[in-house]
Write a structure and sequence with these properties.
The chain is an alpha/beta fold. The protein is 46% helix and 19% strand. It has 3 domains: 3-101 and 146-243, P-loop containing nucleotide triphosphate hydrolases (Rossmann fold, 3-Layer(aba) Sandwich); 319-521, 3-Layer(aba) Sandwich (Rossmann fold); 563-633. The protein has helices spanning 43-51, 90-95, 100-114, 117-130, 132-145, 160-174, 190-202, 214-220, 239-273, 283-296, 357-364, 399-404, 420-425, 443-455, 473-484, 497-503, 523-552, 554-559, 568-595, 602-633; strands spanning 3-14, 17-28, 32-36, 66-69, 75-78, 178-182, 206-210, 223-228, 231-235, 319-328, 331-340, 346-350, 372-377, 383-386, 409-411, 417-419, 461-465, 489-493, 506-512, 515-520. The strands form 5 sheets. It has a 6-stranded mixed β-sheet with strand order 5-6-7-3-8-9, with helices on both faces. A 6-stranded mixed β-sheet has the order 14-17-18-12-19-20, sandwiched between helices. Strands 2-1-4 form a 3-stranded antiparallel β-sheet, with helices on one face. The chain is globular.
């Protein structure tokens, strides 16, 4: 298999912190690779270097690492937070910097809008030359699937999720051979994530990506690369395979290290016993001793966050909602919602972006007033609200400043009280980091610090709005265990399907126009139910069409029950189709000549273009029917 990426001796440091040193990485054509590592260890930095957005550092010999990409079809880099020219329209951004065929389609679309005859003629000739008509159809399918509709909207008017979808459309339309993606599922709704997942599974493109979405990892990737302690470990399989083999690797490492330690004790006694004779002893044994010492002192980085803060006692009455409604002018977000929350329940909120999930959270917590209804809040409720937009940290503050501004001590599950400095270490902020300015933290480290500020207040009603964005897989596993055993209430808004399945025991499904339905079950079960309902609806429509068709052809069917044979009516239809096809082909040729003549007015040109498309569609339908009838007549 041909190599598409060869990276050698890549190093990166930030100040005194070494992210990775002299890494070698090879990716073959067609591989779909995921890079897994804890936050702050250099995942995004490595992607930037490979994508050419950054350069590797010099090593101790003054040499820099190299990145070679052998790719004729181009490279696409999807950043975690894509940047755009905010004054451009969605249309301009989607088609900017694309391949020839994408640029040709964009030019054709502009020519149509301009009603300039000469431009339209030239654009149509180019479309013919590059065979762009089918490609134009594909572009429209991509934009539709990604829910990108208002192409004339300015980029500055879009939300984070909308901008991410524009970046994805740009990547997919340009059809690069090698795609580099940093957290591609962040800010996407669940339906779009499923579409992207299917698209990448079917595609033959080579992929290198960082993502925390475990279902996405499992279903798309066929190779996992783990970055741990500056070393790369490769697993030729999906995420489930990685988990299994990683456990084996760690067990083998521990066994080998234990054996090395035992042997090291024996060799150490030998070294101490005969120091004078050491020079005359076999040099290989002395050298082997130092190699053995190094191996015996190896350690696995088993650091992981420890969440064991207490939750305040929660009374019987929590939140009782009766007829709650909310709207922004004519846009209804909640309509007549009635529900009494119970202790220990864990609820997931699902629905398209912009349907009102975050507004719902703001309403029940009292952050924004409801339009109608009542919310009766229990006296013992203490909210812990982890907002999607995060917290506006003062970037000049240090890590310890950020938490000390909230409290000096934290109560733990066992009733003990510790200072915030000790609490920070449980979230992988060692003392050496406490005086680090927040501006120097990675995106994942900032989110982890935000989680600290929420949990240190000992909440008993947790509200988590997109908690999985920017958190690494190790942190997510610990957070899931904590939430599974959390005695209070939990409400989750998340596009991470695995996270929802693990935590939420029922769902509030936002269907639009303020309608919120309670579904008891896991998210995967809900999606299967929706897909089955859609399948049944489609089958019903097909059955209805088939019944109608059978009814129309009942006489013919009754006349020829034993053997397939053209009826008199079908013979006449076949003759008629052949005559129509001949006539339409002539009209099509005539239109082609007119369109290429250069003598049509702009209005006539557009009219003839539309007519030409209708002829093509009619010819295709007739040819399909002709084939059906021809097969019967043979």
């Amino acid at each position: 298999m041909a190599s598409i990426l060869q990276a050698q001796k890549l190093s990166k440091r930030y100040g005194t912190k070494i992210l990775f040193e002299e890494l070698d990485l090879n990716i073959n054509e067609g591989e779909k690779v995921a890079l897994i590592a804890p936050n702050g260890t250099g995942k995004s930095s490595l992607l930037k270097i490979i994508a050419g957005e950054d350069t590797p550092d010099m090593n101790n010999n003054g040499e820099s690492g190299t990145v070679q990409i052998f790719c004729e079809g181009g490279i696409a880099y999807l950043k975690q937070e894509p940047t755009f020219n905010l004054e451009k329209t969605v249309f301009e951004e989607v088609f900017s910097g694309g391949e020839e065929i994408a640029a040709t389609v964009a030019n054709y679309e502009r020519a149509l809008l301009s009603q300039d005859q000469k431009k339209l003629e030239e654009a149509m000739l180019e479309m013919e030359r590059v065979e762009g008509w089918q490609y134009e159809q594909k572009i429209k399918q991509v934009l539709s699937a990604l829910q990108i509709e208002e192409l004339d909207q300015k980029m500055k008017e879009l939300s984070g999720g909308q901008k991410k979808r524009v970046a994805l459309a740009k990547m997919m339309i340009n059809e690069a051979s090698f795609i580099i993606m940093d957290e591609p599922t962040n800010h996407l709704d669940l339906i779009v994530i499923e579409y992207l997942e299917e698209y990448l599974k079917r595609s033959r493109v080579t992929i290198l990506m960082v993502t925390h979405d475990r279902y996405f990892l499992d279903r798309v990737c066929n190779k996992i690369i783990e970055l741990e302690n500056g070393e790369l470990y490769t697993y030729n399989g999906n995420y489930s395979y990685f988990l299994e083999k990683r456990e084996e690797r760690l067990e083998n490492f521990i066994s080998e290290t234990d054996r090395a330690k035992n042997l090291f004790k024996t060799e150490l006694e030998w070294m101490r016993r005969m120091p004078q004779a050491r020079a005359t002893k076999a040099k290989y044994r002395v050298n082997a001793f130092y190699d053995l010492k190094e191996k015996a002192n190896q350690k696995i980085s088993s650091d992981k966050i420890k969440i064991d803060s207490a939750s305040t006692r929660l009374g019987t009455k929590i939140i009782n909602c009766k007829g709650v409604s909310h709207n922004y002018h004519n846009f209804v977000t909640i309509e007549d919602f009635t529900y009494n929350f119970s202790k220990g329940e864990k609820i997931g909120l699902v629905g398209p972006n912009g349907v009102g999930k975050t507004t719902f959270l703001e309403v029940i917590t009292g952050a924004i007033p409801l339009t109608k209804g009542e919310i009766d809040l229990g006296e013992t409720v203490v909210f812990g609200y982890y907002r999607q937009k995060g917290i506006d940290f003062n970037l000049n503050d240090t890590v310890i400043d950020a938490v000390q501004s909230i409290a000096e001590v934290v109560t733990m599950n066992d009733g003990s009280v510790i200072n915030v400095s000790q609490f920070l270490t449980r979230f992988l902020f060692p003392h050496s980091m406490h005086n680090t300015k927040i501006e120097k933290l990675s995106g994942g480290e900032k989110r982890r610090l935000y989680l600290v500020t929420v949990l240190m207040q000992n909440p008993n009603f947790l509200i988590l709005d997109e908690p999985t964005n920017d958190l690494d897989l190790m942190t997510l596993n610990v957070l899931e265990d904590y939430l599974s055993n959390f005695p209070g209430c939990v409400i989750i808004v998340s596009h991470d399907r695995y996270f929802l399945d693990k935590i939420a025991d029922h769902l509030f499904v936002f269907e639009g126009e303020g309608v919120i339905k309670d579904y008891v079950g896991k998210y995967s079960e809900y999606r299967e139910m929706v897909k089955e309902a859609e399948k049944q609806k489609l089958n019903l429509e097909k059955d209805s069409s088939l019944t109608k068709l059978k009814s129309n052809n009942k006489l013919e069917s009754n006349k020829t029950p034993e053997k397939k044979r053209l009826s008199y009516k079908e013979k006449k239809e076949l003759e008629s189709i052949e005559t129509k096809l001949e006539r339409l082909s002539k009209k099509k040729s005539s239109l082609e000549a007119a369109l290429n003549s250069g003598s049509l007015s702009p209005d006539k040109l557009i009219e003839n273009s539309n007519q030409y498309a209708e002829y093509l569609k009619e010819i295709e339908t007739l040819e399909h029917r002709w084939l059906e009838l021809s097969e019967i007549s043979e």
